[in-house]
């Protein structure tokens, strides 16, 4: 390879810039191959940060002395479970609403991503694009339950008072709190919204949707180590 040959040509660079953030963040598509309405990105950001919102509610109540730590975890986990279930039900409704139209359309799997059309902020096309949904009802319930458990344990694990006891440093507490919640948001998004494309390369063969469980599994492992230590 000569010195003037770029590592990534224009096509590969565009592909990399589109897929790399999606892989790192667990599924959000912030760079598409076409011009999409702003609400597509806003909706994804809101859904991505939703676990942090519910965890923040629980954390605030704990810091104010209103609730104990285990009650805080239960509250945040319950709110996340209801939210995850509601999102999946919304996807099922959107699919049923457009089922007749889809039967009349000829699908081209090579251009589905490049030819998606959106009609409104909460339209059926928007919902199905952002939340593809699960293949089986049992996975809808199971993944929603796991999302609640993950949010609850994450809230308990990242309570500022607990982190401060470990490191006795405000700066370290803030850094761990922020990056910890970003990590949990990544796991939750992959679990209940949309799994990252690169980690689902063989998604057609992923009959039981195991890929969506991998990021939450790694997070559970870290939390389990802390639980065992305490």
Automatic annotation (TrEMBL):
<protein>
    <recommendedName>
        <fullName>Pecanex-like protein</fullName>
    </recommendedName>
</protein>
<feature type="transmembrane region" description="Helical">
    <location>
        <begin position="39"/>
        <end position="62"/>
    </location>
</feature>
<comment type="similarity">
    <text>Belongs to the pecanex family.</text>
</comment>
<dbReference type="InterPro" id="IPR039797">
    <property type="entry name" value="Pecanex"/>
</dbReference>
<feature type="transmembrane region" description="Helical">
    <location>
        <begin position="74"/>
        <end position="94"/>
    </location>
</feature>
<feature type="transmembrane region" description="Helical">
    <location>
        <begin position="165"/>
        <end position="186"/>
    </location>
</feature>
<feature type="transmembrane region" description="Helical">
    <location>
        <begin position="136"/>
        <end position="159"/>
    </location>
</feature>
<keyword id="KW-0812">Transmembrane</keyword>
<dbReference type="GO" id="GO:0016020">
    <property type="term" value="C:membrane"/>
</dbReference>
<keyword id="KW-1133">Transmembrane helix</keyword>
<keyword id="KW-0472">Membrane</keyword>
């Amino acid at each position: 390879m000569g010195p003037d040959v770029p590592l990534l040509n224009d096509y590969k660079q565009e592909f990399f810039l589109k897929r790399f953030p999606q892989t790192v963040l667990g599924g959000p598509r912030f760079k598409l191959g076409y011009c999409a309405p702003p609400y597509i990105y806003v909706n994804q950001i809101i859904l991505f940060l939703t676990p942090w919102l519910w965890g923040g509610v629980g954390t605030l109540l704990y810091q104010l002395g209103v609730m104990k730590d285990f009650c805080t975890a239960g509250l945040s986990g319950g709110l996340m479970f209801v939210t995850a279930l509601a999102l999946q039900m919304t996807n099922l409704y959107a699919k049923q609403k457009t089922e007749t139209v889809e039967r009349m359309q000829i699908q081209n799997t090579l251009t589905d991503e490049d030819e998606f059309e959106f009609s409104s902020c909460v339209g059926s096309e928007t919902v199905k694009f952002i939340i593809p949904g699960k293949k089986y009802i049992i996975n809808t319930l199971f993944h929603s339950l796991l999302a609640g458990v993950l949010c609850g344990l994450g809230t308990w694990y990242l309570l500022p008072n607990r982190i401060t006891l470990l490191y006795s440093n405000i700066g370290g507490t803030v850094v761990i709190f922020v990056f910890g919640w970003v990590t949990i948001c990544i796991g939750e998004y992959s679990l209940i919204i949309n799994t990252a494309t690169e980690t689902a390369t063989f998604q057609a063969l992923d009959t039981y949707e195991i890929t969506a469980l991998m990021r939450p599994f790694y997070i559970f492992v870290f939390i389990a180590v802390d639980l065992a230590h305490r």
